[in-house]
Amino acid sequence: MNMTEKILAKAARKKEVQPGEIIEVNVDLAMTHDGTSPPTIKTFKKIAEKTGQKRVWDPKKIVIVYDHNIPPNNIGAAEFQQITREFAKEQGIENIFKHGEGICHQVLPEKGFTKPGTIIIGGDSHTCTYGAFGAFATGMGATDMAMIFATGKTWLRVPESVKIEVNGEFQEHVTAKDLILHIIGELGVDGATYKSIEFTGETIKGLGVPDRMTICNMTVEMGAKNGIIEPNKTVIEYLKKRTSQKNFEIYTSDPDYDYHEEFYFNIDNLEPQVACPNSVDNVKDVKKVIGTHIDQAFLGSCTNGRFKDLKMAAEILKDEKIHDDVRMVVVPASSEIYLKALKEGIIKIFIDAGAIVCNPGCGPCLGAHMGVLGPGEVCISTSNRNFQGRMGDPKSKVYLANPIIVAKSAIKGEISIPE
């Protein structure tokens, strides 16, 4: 079996599983946020009415994070958060982060909830981010999340597996974001529908935690069920600092495993990439879109809002000024990252350059608040999606790029690359 199948087999209490097989698994961790908690709670209460079971299966294994509309930007968002707070108190759910701690996909690893070899199901499509830690992690809708809240179990079809091997060295101004954009551009938005993507190769093995998270975060943009990477020493050291647990269940794929598909990439000559409107697989070398006017630059999200991303952008913005035609919005992925950036003078660099630095959260990524686009406006963003209307008006446009390109473009007022 491969890594994913071994984790699923353990969770299903079976010796082995096969692609296409329907299994019931025990969930190790369930996560919802301020947007998906209320519909999950509503369905959970319907289940309670029919079954008489009014308590969640294990309050210690449920994590709730306020991140999509924090602080609430309208009455509906405020009501959603009220409902969630009341439910958490009623059920004894202590793992609720409601004071701007950050984006769920950053907060869970920081707080030690993501562990190798576990099953993590979240009420958000980018839950696949946790595959960076060797976990099986995937997103589900409110009905499925409600059943998990009630039973601690869910059903899955064992996905077919895709192996993506990456070798070579990143060139200047080229990042893990460019790699995953390039892969999505090659495979397409439906190139891995309901498949498990396993990343390997010398390039992947050498990556640290932030880059692994960026790569796994965007696997859902190819339609994948999950993305996963075998943990290296750096990942294990990160986990040991975040949890009292010192020994982890690390799964590896059998060397003779026969994958459904295999793809090989060499990045020695890879240039910075940009996903152009209105699809994540509409990927081009940045040189082909240089000079495109922008109205907004967004640095943040669960894809590229980590400290490493902020630092890369700050190195470009130091002693520079953001173009008069551009508003730059910076949203650190967590309060921990925000404080570190503040301590190291990075936040000052952003403010001195003319950027708007907002509290940790999802912010402009989903077009909810703190940077909504108007008709015809163009944004270059470090986030993960550029669908029509994703960040605001349906007539606006979104380009996806790495933090370096976003920062340089903010200075120039058009899509640009450092000299």
Automatic annotation (TrEMBL):
<keyword id="KW-0004">4Fe-4S</keyword>
<keyword id="KW-0479">Metal-binding</keyword>
<dbReference type="InterPro" id="IPR001030">
    <property type="entry name" value="Acoase/IPM_deHydtase_lsu_aba"/>
</dbReference>
<keyword id="KW-0411">Iron-sulfur</keyword>
<feature type="binding site">
    <location>
        <position position="365"/>
    </location>
    <ligand>
        <name>[4Fe-4S] cluster</name>
    </ligand>
</feature>
<keyword id="KW-0100">Branched-chain amino acid biosynthesis</keyword>
<feature type="binding site">
    <location>
        <position position="302"/>
    </location>
    <ligand>
        <name>[4Fe-4S] cluster</name>
    </ligand>
</feature>
<comment type="subunit">
    <text>Heterodimer of LeuC and LeuD.</text>
</comment>
<dbReference type="InterPro" id="IPR006251">
    <property type="entry name" value="Homoacnase/IPMdehydase_lsu"/>
</dbReference>
<keyword id="KW-0456">Lyase</keyword>
<dbReference type="InterPro" id="IPR036008">
    <property type="entry name" value="Aconitase_4Fe-4S_dom"/>
</dbReference>
<dbReference type="Pfam" id="PF00330">
    <property type="entry name" value="Aconitase"/>
</dbReference>
<feature type="domain" description="Aconitase/3-isopropylmalate dehydratase large subunit alpha/beta/alpha">
    <location>
        <begin position="5"/>
        <end position="413"/>
    </location>
</feature>
<comment type="pathway">
    <text>Amino-acid biosynthesis; L-leucine biosynthesis; L-leucine from 3-methyl-2-oxobutanoate: step 2/4.</text>
</comment>
<comment type="similarity">
    <text>Belongs to the aconitase/IPM isomerase family. LeuC type 2 subfamily.</text>
</comment>
<dbReference type="GO" id="GO:0051539">
    <property type="term" value="F:4 iron, 4 sulfur cluster binding"/>
</dbReference>
<feature type="binding site">
    <location>
        <position position="362"/>
    </location>
    <ligand>
        <name>[4Fe-4S] cluster</name>
    </ligand>
</feature>
<dbReference type="InterPro" id="IPR011826">
    <property type="entry name" value="HAcnase/IPMdehydase_lsu_prok"/>
</dbReference>
<comment type="function">
    <text>Catalyzes the isomerization between 2-isopropylmalate and 3-isopropylmalate, via the formation of 2-isopropylmaleate.</text>
</comment>
<dbReference type="InterPro" id="IPR033941">
    <property type="entry name" value="IPMI_cat"/>
</dbReference>
<dbReference type="InterPro" id="IPR050067">
    <property type="entry name" value="IPM_dehydratase_rel_enz"/>
</dbReference>
<keyword id="KW-0432">Leucine biosynthesis</keyword>
<keyword id="KW-0408">Iron</keyword>
<dbReference type="InterPro" id="IPR018136">
    <property type="entry name" value="Aconitase_4Fe-4S_BS"/>
</dbReference>
<dbReference type="InterPro" id="IPR015931">
    <property type="entry name" value="Acnase/IPM_dHydase_lsu_aba_1/3"/>
</dbReference>
<dbReference type="GO" id="GO:0046872">
    <property type="term" value="F:metal ion binding"/>
</dbReference>
<dbReference type="GO" id="GO:0009098">
    <property type="term" value="P:L-leucine biosynthetic process"/>
</dbReference>
<dbReference type="GO" id="GO:0003861">
    <property type="term" value="F:3-isopropylmalate dehydratase activity"/>
</dbReference>
<protein>
    <recommendedName>
        <fullName>3-isopropylmalate dehydratase large subunit</fullName>
        <ecNumber>4.2.1.33</ecNumber>
    </recommendedName>
</protein>
<keyword id="KW-0028">Amino-acid biosynthesis</keyword>
